[in-house]
Amino acid sequence: MATQNQFLTTTIKADEDLNSHQYFAVALDDGKIANDGLEASGILINKPKDNHFATLGYCGEMKFRAGVGLSAGDRLRVTTSGYFVSAASGYYFMGRVKAAVTSGSIGTGLFNFTAPVYQVSSL
Fold it and tell me: Distance between CA atoms of 65 and 63, rounded to whole angstroms?
């Protein structure tokens, strides 16, 4: 079961209907689903409709939507659809998986979107 603990949030205007995208990565600059780890500014905590307020968690222990099966300790990056998958060489990562999670499920991770790290080699 995914859990959340202490985390920091901010509020932005959603520029698209994000009602069905809770726990996906969102971009700060346009209030839409993030396309990659560099654009991602946080995880959507609530379920806003277009032009409503979106709450983004940007640092701490939060729930996330897994795009693939992940193991505890895996580094996380963002796909073009806002899902989180394993980070590989050549991608920005901003979090780590706390406990194993299956594809399409909600997992728990430790995140820091304020300073994404560019992974230059596979670990």
Answer: 7
Residue spans per domain, the chain:
7-62, 63-119
Are 92 and 121 in contact by the 8 Å Cβ rule? The answer is: no
Q: Are 84 and 95 in contact (CB under 8 A)?
A: yes
Q: Which residues contact 6 (CB under 8 A, 6 or more apart)?
A: 60, 61
pLDDT confidence of residue 121: 73
Structure tokens at 41: 């500014």
Residue 4 has pLDDT above 70, yes or no: yes
In this predicted model, what pLDDT tens digit does every residue of 51-76 receive, in sequence order? Answer: 999 999 999 999 999 999 999 999 99
Residues whose CB is less than 8 angstroms from the CB of residue 3 and which lie 6 or more positions away in sequence, other chains included? 61, 63, 108
